[in-house]
Amino acid sequence: MTSAQPPLEDTLVTGYTRLASEAPHRRIDLELRALDIVFATLFGVLLLPISLAIALLVLVSSGRPVLYRGERVGRRGHFFEMLKFRTLKTGAEGRIGQYLGDELVRRTDEELTALGRWLKASQLDEIPQLWNVLHGDMSFVGPRPIRPRFFAELATELPAYWQRLVVLPGLTGFAQVRRGYETSMAEKLAHDLEWIADRSVRLYLRTLVVTALRVLRQTLSRRP
User: Fold this and answer.
1) Burial class of residue 127 in the structure, from the number of CB atoms within 10 Å of its CB (0-12 exposed, 13-18 middle, 19+ buried)
2) Measuring CA to CA, which residue among 131, 120, 145 is closest to residue 215?
């Protein structure tokens, strides 16, 4: 009897993991990891009261689960569970999980709860990812983490896409501070590859500052 074949995304990620593992290690990655730990610890403590308040609001307004947990592809093809405060209606992941690009954006917007719309606009829904950073699955700056199935599709369409596996995925990145959701995946990849090639403490800090200013403007311009 023929054994079941692994899903395409597993096969591609496994193959590209080898390529990513062969990429030369850089001292800067250790320095950025140290900054990740310091900032994640600091922000985690400072934002704890806000996190508890958001968790209570999500629970009261739309019930359980409070957190969204989604499988993502990380550095060197490591699969991990990315955390967010839930912003969508219950069961939305099953209804929109197969879409990508503009269609995903449109359907996601339709599934947002009233509170979730504000959380997403202000990016406060991503506070739980501080745990992902502390755990070593993510960094503050890097390519945004992606679902395994979408990785398989994009790695087939964009030959250089596997290079995103060389670094940790990030809470924010060049593609996010420079462009919006409407940017094509090829354009986003170009920005991600620029970060991978030129990453430094200076660029890391500058990206965090730009992101913080952007989040502040979005938060002040919207109310739940």
Assistant:
1) buried
2) 120
- Burial, 195: exposed, middle or buried (Cβ in 10 Å; 0-12, 13-18, 19+)? buried
* Residues 6+ positions from 74 with CB-CB distance below 8 Å: 80, 137, 138, 145, 165, 168, 169
Tell me how far CA of residue 4 lies from CA of 8, 14, 17, 147, 153, in angstroms.
Answer: 12, 17, 22, 22, 21
Q: What is the DSSP secondary structure assignment for residue 91, as one 8-state letter? A: T
Query: pLDDT tens digits, the chain, 224 residues: what are they?
Result: 444 444 555 555 666 666 666 666 678 999 999 999 999 999 999 999 999 999 999 999 888 899 999 999 999 888 999 999 999 887 777 676 666 666 676 777 777 888 988 898 888 999 999 999 999 999 999 999 998 888 888 888 888 898 899 999 999 998 888 765 556 888 889 999 999 999 999 999 999 999 888 877 766 665 54
The answer for residues whose C-beta is within 8 angstroms of residue 60's C-beta and 6 or more apart is none
Cα separation, 148 vs 221, whole angstroms: 34
- Tokens 């992941």 belong to 93
For 26, 36, 38, 116, 209, the CA distances from 42, given in Å and listed in that order, are 25, 10, 6, 25, 16
87 and 121 Cβ atoms separated by less than 8 Å: no
Residues facing 85 on adjacent strands: 67
DSSP output for 105-129: HHHHHHHB-HHHHHHHHHTGGGTTH
